[in-house]
Amino acid sequence: MAGLSVRHAEATPALPVPEPSTEAALGERMNANTVSVITGTPGGTYFRIGADLAFVLNNGDKLRVLPILGKGAGENAYDIRFLKGVDLGFVRTDTLEQLRRDTRLRNIEQHIHFIAKLFNDELHIIAPYAVKGVGDLAGKRVSFDVKGSGTDYSGRVMFRELGVAVEAINVDQPTALEMLRNGDLDAVVSVAAKPVAFITSFDPGDRFHLVPAPYPNTISEAYVPASLSPADYPKLVRGDVRETLAVGTVLGVYNSQKGTVRYEKLVRFVDAFFGQFDKFLAPQRHPKWREVNLAASVKGWTRFRPAQDWLDRHREQDVASQSELDRFLLTQSARPAGKEEVYQAYLKWRQAR
After folding, report:
1. What are the boundaries of each domain within the chain?
2. Separation of alpha carbons 288 and 351, rounded Å
3. Is 120-248 CATH 2.60.40.10?
4. Do 2-118+249-313 and 120-248 show the same overall fold?
5. Would you give the DSSP letter of residue 136?
6. Helices in the chain by DSSP H: which ranges?
7. Burial level of 60, CB count in 10 A (0-12/13-18/19+)?
């Protein structure tokens, strides 16, 4: 459970910050307090998650989160590594392997670290009902979003891991769906966190559905089994749940040098993000936040030093939090049945105290 993995520190009231007296001072303060995060295409999950970061964490002149539209996880990694105006970005657990294959890059693991493992992005395959399983798409025309997107990389790798060779096409998702309707494509692929907005808004009629892609035992450990249910996509999943694959998303960060202005503002971001994480679990935020475990490690990745320091400082408080949870459970005459219900009741109890 996300919020039970660490206890969040109480906020310390800050002293008033004097207003800058010159235009140059104003610019310096704005740059020193603004953290940019590269997200994804409009309407996508990364775009919505980036907006949540801004809504929750923006705090006047102390911290501003500035979401930037991006192509997705594949291109985001290059943006984090090379663009001076990009501090953070949503990338995937298979992203470092993608960058290692680029012979132009050196020691990529030293430049891109992660702050937290977030959630899983599921493989979605939209195709006509005649396509019963992913194997039926062998040799067919399949769209993998725009070149450089997360779907372009992860989706292609997933198909290779599944042993299905296709004729890969790169077009944007709205165009791909229109091509699918017209018979110019055999399937449209999206690797994104469910529910995906452009998929939920797609009207399949009686022609299209989400194709199952069962998890094979031989697949890379970067990918995990997942499922898509009628609750996720009522129009596209009729009857049985669809088995599929998923890949993890992490909040990547440029590994800035300690003592720099960029490093110090990222320290403030980490403190705010971890310390106010409960706010991301509110009903108006994306449901994928509820999958997050802030303390989870990611194989092959190095955690950004300020994030690791924050977790280390709060380990003792985590023990205290467990004791507090025990006290809460003793107050419950009728204990909620599910983990999520327990956690939501616990949050209300703690806020009331």
Report:
1. 2-118+249-313, 120-248, 318-352
2. 23
3. no
4. yes
5. G
6. 23-33, 45-57, 73-82, 95-100, 108-111, 150, 156-161, 173-181, 197-200, 261-275, 305-313, 315-330, 339-352
7. exposed
Q: Is 64 helix (H, G, I), strand (E, B) or coil?
A: strand
Q: What pTM did the predictor assign?
A: 0.77
Alpha-carbon distance of 73 to 89, in angstroms, equals: 8
Decide if 21 contacts 30 (C-beta within 8 A): no
Which fold is adopted by the domain 2-118+249-313?
Answer: D-Maltodextrin-Binding Protein; domain 2 (3.40.190)
Task: Give the confidence band of 307 by pLDDT, cuts at 50, 70, 90.
Answer: very high
pLDDT tens for each residue of 7-25: 444 444 555 556 777 888 7
- Return the HEC string of 250-282: EEEEECCCCCCHHHHHHHHHHHHHHHCHHHHHC
Length of the chain, please?
353
pLDDT in tens, 164-181: 999 999 999 999 999 999
Q: How far is CA 111 from CA 159, 256, 305, 320, 334, in A?
A: 29, 8, 12, 35, 50
